Structure formats: structure tokens, C-alpha cells
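[Meeting: bench + compute handoff]

Bench side (C.D.) handed over the final construct sequence. Compute side (W.E.) agreed to return the predicted structure before the next meeting so the bench team could plan truncations. Sequence as handed over:
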Amino acid sequence: MMRAWQVSELGEPAEVLNLVELATPSPRPDQVLIQVESVGLNFPDGLQIRGGYQVQARLPFTPGSEISGTVVEIGAEVEDWLPGARVVWMGSGGLAQFVTAPAKELFPIPDAMTFDQAACLPYNYGTGVYAIENRANLQSGETMLVTAAAGGVGSAAVQLGKALGANVIGLAGGPDKVATVFELGADAAFDYREVDIVDAVRATTDGRGVDVCYEAVSGDTFDQVRRCMAWDGRLLIIGFTSGRIADAPTNHILLKNYSVVGVHWGAYLSRSPEAPRQNWERICELFQTGMIDPLVSSVRPLAQARQGLVDIGSRKTVGKVVIRPQD
């Protein structure tokens, strides 16, 4: 038997998540059984529990998509993994002490990387690598603006931008979060609640604007940051955490000659068979240089996972919340 969090009906995490006892699963021939060591919580986990995410699990389900752990059993057809291997999987069902996963979807964790770090990298840094390198083609010396820069997705983008030689400007809510953005390496950071975003960014860039904007908020924030774009800029659409999906005025896009670029990383991975491995290898390469190191706000036992999701949803956290199911 094992402990796991389970959702039997959609709703607020505080109301519908239940910690239960379930039978430990057995791997199918093409699967492995993983003892889960660390799980990185993400904003979309809460959306999925509420029924607001574009990919919805069948009820009942166990949340948790960023999973690191140790292989403890392999299926009859598995040849590439042995018990004892340290692996990371971007899958499902992570908020449990054990989970089964397709062997072909696992990646090795480098020796220098902890389970906690591994559980923070696939989603946020994977999205960032794809967005910044593949979609924006960010060049050294360019300027990048990051919204929600103290959060999990934003903090990863700040570090990745600096690793690629960009000048990075971060937006965050409150003085503590602004201080966090500076600690991540940003060249400038502003409390979006206290400044006029357009004026602040233009002053910082001598009126030129930014070459790339990493925009995960939408709503009112999008309405402002689009006015910060430089000529030939690339405005990356990462997500809509504000809840309101903004409109992009085509006359403004034309007159300032910038691009609005969608970043659907999950769909990209499913359409390109080699993309997941290439993406993970690039993350590991950057990690081993010391240029990226995930910001972790707290590490909590399995029993506190529900509160972790509540805290993320109410914007009380910076970086990542990590859950250790064995604790």
C-alpha cells in the first residue's frame, strides 16, 4: 500500500484533494515502477484540479507532473533501465509514494543533480529553453522582459536569459519578490503594482523597448508589456495566469513590426519525437555550467501538498514548491 493524493471531483484544491491509501501499482511490460522522491508543484496542477486546464485527467486522478525518483521494478520488456536508476519523468500521478511510468519517457538524472532540483527543471526550464532559444532565438546582448519573474516559470526564464547573455528586466508583485528577481541575476526589476510598466521599461532601455518579452500573465499585464516591444521584437505567449485572455491589436503589431509568438511546449514535444530528450539534454548542459539552479521556496512532506497548491494558487510562493512523498 502507499499514500497518495486523489481528486474524485473537480473543484478548489483545498476542498477536493484527499490523502488516501491506495494499492502500490505494478508496472506493465513496457513500464517501470518509480519510488517517488520529489515532485515539483506547478500552477497548472491547480488548474487541472479545478477543471480549467487544456489537458484534463480522467477522474479519479492523482496530480503531480514533475517527478523524480528511483526505479525499483522494471517490466518484462524494459531493457534500458535497471532498478536503482535515478530518473526524472514529466508525466502524471506524482503526488504518491510510487508511480508507474513508460520506460521510454524517462530521462537520467546527472550525478551532480539532486532529486529536488530534477523535479524543478522539466516544466519551467523545458518551457523556457523552447521559448527563448527555439521560438524567440534570443541573442546575446538583447534585452528580455519577464513577467511574473519571481514565480516558477518566470524565475527559470530570468536565469535562462542571463545564461544566454541577455539583459533581463523582471516584473514582480511586492518588494520581497522584486528582491528575489534581483537575486536571480536580473539587471533591473520593478514592482508592477507600484510603477507604470511602460515608462519604467522605456527608461531602462533608453526608450528602445525590449527585444523579447516572456509573458505568462496576460490580461492587463499583456496590455502594457506589448507597448514595451522594440522594433523586430518577439512577444512570447507563455500562459494566462491572470485569468483574462488578452487581445493583440494587429495595427500596433504592424506599426512596431514585432511578432506575437505562441509557445505551446507540450504540443511541440508530442509532435517531435526527439524533442523531449534534446530538451532535457540542453537543460542538463546549462545546469552543469552552473548558470541555472532552480529557485525553491519550500520543501514539504507529502501531507502538505494540498496546502502547497493552495499557496501557489494564491500567489504566496516564489519559485517552486517541492513535495517529498517519502517524508
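W.E. noted at the follow-up: Residues 2-120+294-324 form a domain with the Quinone Oxidoreductase; Chain A, domain 1 fold (CATH 3.90.180.10). C.D. will use this when planning the next construct.
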